[in-house]
Amino acid sequence: MGTAVRARSRIRPRLPFTSHLSGQDFANLMDRGWVPTGLAFGIALATRHDDWRTSRRKAWTAENQEVPAYTRLLHHARQDARGRLALEAVKHGGDGVVVEGPELTVSESECPGIEGARDLTAEAVFVGTTIARFRRSERPAGPGTLTIMRLERER
User: Fold this and answer.
1) InterPro entries from the entry (predicted)?
2) Residue at 1 is within a domain
């Protein structure tokens, strides 16, 4: 659901676009010289099988310590999702992306190949609106002058 908007000027995007932005965020972007170009997604899924090194680090006697293999798994999922998001931005002709709340989900499942072993899966999801810079005529920043018209009737 959303609101359709049409520019009154002769300069407007070649194609309609979708966006996750609120009306206020859209207006702020436009006022600062940016125009949305489309909705972009960056989604990545990475899986890692536990081996003897990661299993040993998880033991209750290992206390609280980082498991580098898990850190690399999460980093890889996020990095891959950001890369896919950047490719989407280029496809939409955008110079950047406004992202709201990237998600990272980690789950664990039993390994189908080895009984008693487990696999760890990381899923990274980035949703954003691609934006492009546009040139504007030189005018002061901020809202324009508000025209006030009296609605009183003369007697």
Assistant:
1) UPF0145_dom_sf
2) no
Q: Is residue 39 part of a domain?
A: yes
Query: Each residue of 8-38: pLDDT tens digit?
Result: 766 666 667 778 888 888 888 888 888 888 8
When computed from its CA atoms, the radius of gyration of the chain, rounded to whole angstroms, is 25
**Cα dihedral 78/88/40/124 (nearest 10):** -10
| Domain range for 106 | 23-133
Please report how many Cα atoms fall inside a 13 Å half-sphere around the Cα of residue 136, on the Cβ side: 13
Upper half-sphere CA count for residue 104 (Cβ side, 13 Å): 13
Report how far residue 20's alpha carbon sits from residue 12's, in angstroms, rounded to the nearest whole number.
19
CATH number at residue 43: 3.30.110.70
Angstrom distances, CA of residue 144 to CA of 31, 44, 141:
10, 44, 8
**117 vs 28, residue with greater confidence:** 28
Strands 96-99 and 118-133: antiparallel
Query: In the structure encoding, which two tokens stand for residue 108, read together?
Result: 């664990």
The answer to whether residue 65 sits within a structural domain is: yes
